[in-house]
Input
Amino acid sequence: MSTSTEQLSEQLAATTLLRFATAGSVDDGKSTLVGRLLHDSKSVLADQLEAVEHASRSRGQEAPDLALLTDGLRAEREQGITIDVAYRYFATPRRRFILADTPGHVQYTRNMVTGASTAELAVVLVDARNGVVEQTRRHAAVAALLRVPHVVLAVNKMDLVDYREPVFAAIAEEFTTYASELGVPEITAIPISALAGDNVVEPSANMDWYGGPTVLEHLETVPVSHDLTACHARFPVQYVIRPQTAEHPDYRGYAGQIAAGAFRVGEEITVLPSGKTSTITGIDALGESVDIAWAPQSVTIRLADDIDISRGDLLAPSGDAPATTQDIEATVCHVADQSLTVGQRVLLKHTTRTVKAIVKEIPSRLTLDDLSQHPNPGQLVANDIGRVVVRTAEPLALDAYADSRRTGSFLLIDPADGTTLAAGMAGESFATGKAVAVVEDEEGWDF
Output
């Protein structure tokens, strides 16, 4: 079966999926916005709505509290806050969505990082009465760190400021200036009232001065890139298939999920970290041979040469292969309760490869309030974001996170119990940031 790149692009465009996350300060109305979005787009089942109405009445509320559609933990319902990331799946005739409703509290910054790490768009809520606050800047900074390509500023509770345009304009200008300095490529500001439903799914009759899209309209139309030629093609090997049966006596295939880009039969590839080269002779997908495969398909790739390839190796086009390195400088978000310290021995997991590593240095910790760098903190604790220098026992083929969010990211893991310590992003922190000076010190380390 042969399929052209143009046909594949058309197929992808017809079934686009948008992953997006919500963020904002406490009581800005994130969960209410999500609930309103689900309710007004008719993505809520009757029994779910009935349960919300019952819970609302039991709390003395006349109208259903739509925030209860996403705040699922008992502690969240009792306190009226969001603690964990709540994922919701819904669809409209124009697009499918995976939504991550993330917490607003400072102590749950790591939860926001989790929810936004795979997002293509972030909705940052601001209370129109309070304007841009410290948490707003923090969430804008996290979105910039994670290279989220699209950010929506939803200025909520416009009904409580009499739907005044100057209030919205001042907040939008302040936020746009700040986020642009961080390198956020696209910012869209929308005035809304999640409680009343203004500009969430339906246009508001109370803000005729606003001529832009509603939140849902923007989510349905924001471009999601599926340009196959724009990505560096990367294929982490998960499993080597050798059936050695009478039907397939000589079959050798390398199975996995394409992390980025596209691979074609006849293309010359390089195996990393060994550097060996070969040519793709076949690609098997869903039991059939294809001429081309693209991310995020799971496929089996066959090569012309018998090369020593195992789980954790990376296949890349020979003309576009990443360099291998044992010295990694990156930004990490510390997600564990236990601290990360200089000299600590860890495991580093990059795609399907896990290697031993040592934290050589922690040059700085980022203060998200004003984006200042606190030099040489010595350790990172839960919810900290900082720069680290890591030395690995074996070479790794990392891309810069700015080039590939999939192959530029990694995890640091505690080798004793398998706890995830930190999520890392290789390369520069911000699109407009400057590299942090690193002092090299190799003395006393065994690799």
In short: Helices lie at 5-14, 30-40, 46-58, 74-79, 109-116, 134-145, 165-181, 215-221. The longest helix spans residues 165-181. The CA atoms of residues 131 and 170 lie 8 Å apart. Confidence is low (pLDDT under 50) at residues 8-14, 73-83, 433-447.
